[in-house]
Write a structure and sequence with these properties.
heterodimer, A: 491 residues, alpha/beta, Rossmann fold, 434 Repressor (Amino-terminal Domain), 22 helices, globular, B: 365 residues, 8-stranded mixed beta sheet, two-stranded antiparallel ribbon
Chain lengths: 491, 365
Amino acid sequence: MFESLSDGLQSAFKSLSGKGKLTESNMREGLDIVQTAMLEADVSYQVVQDFMAHVSERALGKRVLLSLRPHEELVSIVHSELISILGPVDPSLHLKKEGPTIIMLCGLQGSGKTTTCGKLAQLLKEENIKPLLVAADLQRPAAIDQLHVIGKQLGVPVYSDKENKNPVKVCQAGVEKAKAEDARVVILDTAGRLAIDKELMAELQRIDKRVGPDQVYLVVDGMTGQDAVNSAGAFNEALELDGVVMTKLDGDARGGALLSVKHVTGVPIKFIGTGEHFDALEPFRPEGMAGRILQMGDMVAAAREAHRIVDEKEREELEAKMASGDFTLDDFKSMMEKVAKPGLMGKMMGLMPGMGQFKDVLESDEAAGGIRQTIGAINSMTMAERKNPKEIDAQRRTRIAKGAGVQTPVVSQLIKQFEVMKPLMQGMAGKGAGDRMKMMQQLQSSGAMNDPNMQGMKMKKGSGKRLSPSERAKQKREREKLVRKMKRNRK
Amino acid sequence: MAFWRSKKNQDDEVPQSKSTASNDAGNEIRPVDVQTTASQSGATSTEGSSKSSGPQSKSGSGGLFSKMRGALSKTRQALNTDIRDLFKAEGRLVDDKFLKELFSRLIRTDMGVASAEAIRDDVAQRLRARVVSLEEVLETITEQTQSMLIQESTGLQYAESGPTVILVVGVNGSGKTTSIGKLAHHLHQSGQKVVLGAGDTFRAAAVEQLTVWAGRIGCEIVTGKPEADPASVAYQTVDRALSIDADVAIIDTAGRLQTQTNLMQQLEKIRRVVEKKIDTAPHEVLLVLDATAGQNAISQARGFSDAAGCTGIVLAKLDGSAKGGVILPIREQFQLPVKFVGLGESIDDIAAFDAAAFAKALFAP
């Protein structure tokens, strides 16, 4: 398959660059590619059909602006259509003013209900709202223990009754306890069940009826396939859902099931789970999800990933240095070392719009070798040289190159690159994390998304080092391979 | 071959064309028609049965595509001339709408776009503008999938001597611990001495969960402290298995996403440590896949195979409405056979993989 949707679309629309309108015939190939991308992302077939009909209706007859290429036009239509379907955003828990708000979590086995319970509790705790967790999963062995451990870790009370085998009673008792203890939110962790298991679904309905939760959330595994329509439909029929939480989106699953779930239930998507730790629950952002489903990358997620690898204190120090222009090659080295972690660079590139094609290149041994060389070169410099690379003359360069066991041009390139980078970094620094996030978002919405190959931005692509002829040749081979592959696929 | 059985329709037709139609079923080449028309033998029922025992193509190896092509040759034989289509009571014209419907049926199994397209295109190439029944085409596809899935060895690979070590890996919530419980019970029932290793030291109460299972089965379990190094638990488990002369040691691991590089490296470490204790171990590395999973399962199979060297799949949660068709591309790409299927939460809900039943359920409406 194509590394990204836009690569495929680009080739499909090659012939009609910047002319005319989007018509049914010239769009067909492009729409097929969009459809394939969505099916590959596990969006259910029927939902894809409806969506495609919608998109082609919207795109039909649309003039292709001179400034835009047709594939960009179509991508932007698809993207915005996805956003409008996945929205609107409503991350609020709708807490009641008085008395405890009851939130019930339900879903299939292994979808992540208990973990989500902990994450929601953490979220509430951060807002100084007192939650109470109720262990109503009486099916799975040790599920009650699991919730207790989570409660202990978070310092949140957990209600359970191991003697009682009736989840309805357990939930009712839990709510009573919350009232007595003045907890503002009760989270019911129900047992995982199959949508086709009538008995257990009826049990869920009984809880719903007798306990009367204010909010019922369906927890859906981000890796779910075509079955999402069936299970979400069954849960939605049995209960009146108020929201959806999608979990396990920290991996490489594209999460197309979310579109199916949204289509079937029509309720807002509240949160997405992006990790095993309790703070890894994020308010849902349709923009990011749309990019993910279409494999167009997600700038915001990339920025967040970058934040994650550098711890806060280190980051602040680094930033202060950047802002003041004190950024030295030593700092550069430590940054490189962080980035050089296996697999990380590829992941980052995968998240960035249009950079997907570099993923494999960067994950290659060659790229890792390049970073190693750079680090080696910096290691061979004296402290003074690292602070002030300007004083590195030809003689010193030769010495450094020898010490690091690299060719002299590698050292020259490194220094040159560093000089170019420094003022850029100075510009980036000095803004708060929020500002930067906004900058990223602006970048994302301002058309960087629609121009996935960043043609509009005259920026050097790549790993942060200049490409050697052999690497360039390799990239060219990669590109040609891709084109051949696309041709094959089209047959 | 439903359309051959439709006697009523054929009785309405002129005798001449009736025999042309029925005789063609057994014979492929057109000149034969002339001969048989002359003989005028029109026993429709025997024709039908001779058809079903007629030549079938059997391609030994090759990909899904070529196999499918082989499978469809049966349909092709039955549908050699367009004229015969005229006398069918049921059936539909193979057109875009038909192919779209077929495609949607295939996609619904989670087999992925590439596999579904290969099958659809093959059907299109062979049968376009013909009249067939969708169910029948699916039947042929089912048969073919089944023969593809019937594998040389679906059972566990046991060590030649000493305990057999089974490492169980998978993403979070795929059903590892439950599958281990059921598998251990299954082995215990068949008279084998089983030791469990609670290697999931990360998730809250995972150790307790497996301990509950061990209690139910009545087998031994090795546990480490919470947050302990899972590799050390694995080591101790194998150690224990050796010292009590157990037949099987099953080691649980924490759920992890295949993209978490450091956690995948941990799996490699567990493997190494186990190998240190017994040269040939682990004898089986079972990847637990959630049957509800979509195309990401392919990435899972890749990631876990790279890190842990998977030898087989346990397809969990197959008792729901999900079909688990993603194992088709996985089998194609990684030659990973499915060894067991999980069919529920109770202790007996595990079964050896049955290709016939699976294929049948896969394409059932």
